[in-house]
Amino acid sequence: MHSISPYLVKVYNPTLEIDVAGKKKIGANSQLNDINGKDLFDLIKKFITSHNSKFEKVADQSRKKVYKFLNVTALNKERIIYGWFLEGEYGLEKEIIDINSSDVEFTRRLDNAEITKHFFYINLPLSSRYGLALLHNFNGHGMKTTFHDEIIAFTRPKISCVITMTPLSDETSLKNWSKAVAKEIKLNKFKVQDDITDTITDLGYEEAPATLTLKPPVRGGNFGTLSELFSRKKIDNPQKKLKAVEVLTEHCKEVKTVFELNGKRRTFKIGNGVANVLCEIEAPEKLLENPTPTLEELKEWAFEVAEEFSSEITP
Question: Which of 93, 94, 157, 290 has its CA 20 to 30 A from that of 261?
Fold first, then answer.
């Protein structure tokens, strides 16, 4: 139900001049506290402060999203910001029912929005060219697009550069989790073949986006290790298990695999056509099925996760 996606924060400055092996190079990632004289930490604090009193429509209004920040804390010495990012979608009329009685409780109008609370954590070390963002996902729905797009819209006119947030899970995940074993394989938006549609429908399958979850037939079993199921480069003789995953990708939108190592779980996006390992960090057991974790509970978890990636952003 709850997971965190880690991202590397950086700002490429096409006019920045740096020295590389005694030669001048034009264009490089800026130190995050000096982007054309601006500190990204201060800019993000200003962005949050200006969007924490009422819900705002996103810059791209065709997306029909609203958002605001809530209960945000900035640790100036550590250069860490964390709190709630509230996001909702409007523009679609829906009936809200009581799932027990099937009675319609009320009708959501075009100008109503259902709001989801997402936790976020940002660390922008002093004098570093790289920062860390941990963004919360709930029931498979994330916040990255709105969060990132709105930060860009606010900061770009001030720094004349674009902030990028790329999945921070490629080398780190392969190195630390290569021996982790796969406990589940999830086929998102699984496409059912016509000849078995009726049968699988009897089991509760619905045509609208569904996830088919595969588990090992033997209790305590697994589907192999991360290194067996992921290949960075195309190879002539991929391992048998990797071939099986690539076949599965033809029948769904994406393949996500839940790996376990030393009692911890991570969800990785793998398979044919995936250029690098995309990682979702699954919540610990006490938070996993809790629909309303507290800010303090999510903060404690995020700070623990951040330690795993601290070496990636150390100046």
Answer: 290
**Are 207 and 249 found together in one domain?**
yes
Indicate if 122 and 158 belong to the same structural domain. yes
Same domain, 136 and 232: no
Give a yes or no: residue 299 inside a domain: no
Classify residue 150: in a domain, yes or no.
yes
Question: CB count, 10 Å around CB of 199?
Answer: 10
**pLDDT score of 231 more than 60:** no
Tokens of 28: 């490089």
Q: What integer pLDDT is reported at residue 233 of this predicted model?
A: 44
What is the per-residue pLDDT across 94-109, written as a single tens digit (0 to 9) for each? 888 888 888 888 888 8
CB 75 within 8 A of CB 81: yes
* Cβ atoms of 30 and 17 closer than 8 Å: no
Could you tell me if 178 and 161 lie in one domain?
A: no
What pLDDT shows up at residue 193? 60
Total structural domains within the chain: 2
How confident is the model at residue 115, as a pLDDT?
Answer: 93
Rounded distance, CA 108 to CA 62, Å? 19
Give 199 or 236, the one with higher predicted confidence: 199
Among 167, 191, 207, the domain boundary falls at 167
CA end-to-end distance (rounded Å), the chain: 34
Report the Cα 176 to chain-centroid distance in Å: 19
Q: What's the pTM?
A: 0.77
Helix (H, G, I), strand (E, B) or coil at 160: coil
